[in-house]
Amino acid sequence: MEKLPKIALPVLFGIVVVLILLFKSAVTIDSGHAGVVHETLGQGVDPNEPPLGPGFHIIAPWNRVIDYETRQQEMPEKMSVLSSNGLDIKLDASVLYEPDFNNLGRLHNEKGQEYMSRVLQPAIRSAARSVVGRYTPEQLYSSKRDAIQDEILEETKKIVEPQFIQINDILIRDVTLPPTIKQAIERKLKQEQESLEYEFRLVTAEKEAQKVRIEAQGKADANKILSASLTDKILQDKGIDATIKLSESPNSKVIVIGSGDSGMPIILGNQ
User: Fold this and answer.
1) Cβ-defined contacts of 265-269 (< 8 Å, 24+)
2) How many domains are there within the chain?
3) 189 lies in which domain range?
4) What are the φ/ψ torsions at residue 265 (nearest 5 degrees)?
5) Which of 109, 164, 193, 226 keeps 20 to 30 A from 257, CA to CA?
6) How far apart are alpha carbons 24 and 63 in whole angstroms?
């Protein structure tokens, strides 16, 4: 009985050590995250080793797991760039990005967890300066905004994708011009709109006038054809037909034959 405590103590100590090792070896990765394993007794993070996905994992207790969010993330960015004529333009943009999951180990070894500030921010600023410098303030303010947004996206992709960062989109929320330039552009756009409206009214009026001319010409042509086809003989025949119909009417009347112009009947009523 005296020996039992001496045997139980090492066993108890061993159980505690095992529990500690198991606790240190157990890793849980949350949804939308991944982990790269840093081998303390090895060469650090193996770039060829696939990252740990969401779920429960057991690793060697002397190693550690570095967590990365793999979901799409947003990086707001406000930039001051120059237009083609040297004016200061301010862009308010958002970058939608995520790390390249399959190359998470390489990203960690080459850029680290601060890859956003080390790679992404300098890339978007460089691309924005390059693209905006090709356009005038008027183009930035109006018609070319979507094209500029797409060009900045493509320029940024060329820089960051070889560095294991995936760019999903770049959204230009606002373009701020110097107040005097903005007012001048707005005045010009207003004048252009008024000019287009005036031209539209002129075209509409001209079409309406053309329609009236066509209708008048049609009536004139019809009358001309009708006049050419009505000879004296035809008029006399039509007058005789009308006289016969009137003579058959029950209304009392006096019909004098051959007393009108061109020998046409004169019809006198009883009133």
Assistant:
1) 265/239, 265/240, 267/243
2) 4
3) 180-229
4) -65, 150
5) 226
6) 9
Task: List the CATH number of the domain containing 139.
Answer: 3.30.479.30
d(CA 76, CA 82): 20
Q: Please check whether residues 97 and 54 belong to one and the same domain.
A: no
Cβ neighbours for 32, distance < 8 A, ≥ 6 positions apart: 54, 69, 70, 71
Residues 114 and 153 in one domain: yes
Regarding whether 108 and 91 lie in a shared domain, the answer is: yes
Residues 6 or more apart whose Cβ sits within 8 Å of residue 23 = none
* Helices 121-132 and 145-160, packing angle to 10 deg: 140
Strands (E), the chain: 26-29, 33-39, 44-45, 55-58, 64-69, 73-82, 88-99, 165-176, 253-256, 266-269
Q: Count the alpha carbons within 13 Å of 255 in the hemisphere toward its beta carbon.
A: 16
Model confidence over 130-186: pLDDT tens digits? Answer: 998 888 887 877 767 788 889 999 999 999 999 999 999 999 988 888 777 656 666
Q: Which two tokens stand for residue 229?
A: 């086809």
pTM value?
A: 0.61
Tokens of 90: 């301010």
| Residues in Cβ contact with 142 at an 8 Å cutoff, skipping those fewer than 6 apart | 185, 189
- Long-range contact set of residues 239-242: C-beta below 8 Å, sequence gap at least 24: 239/264, 239/265, 240/265
Report in angstroms the alpha-carbon separations of 216 from 104, 188, 209, 226: 81, 42, 11, 15
Whether residues 82 and 65 share a domain: the answer is: no
Report pLDDT for 19. Answer: 46
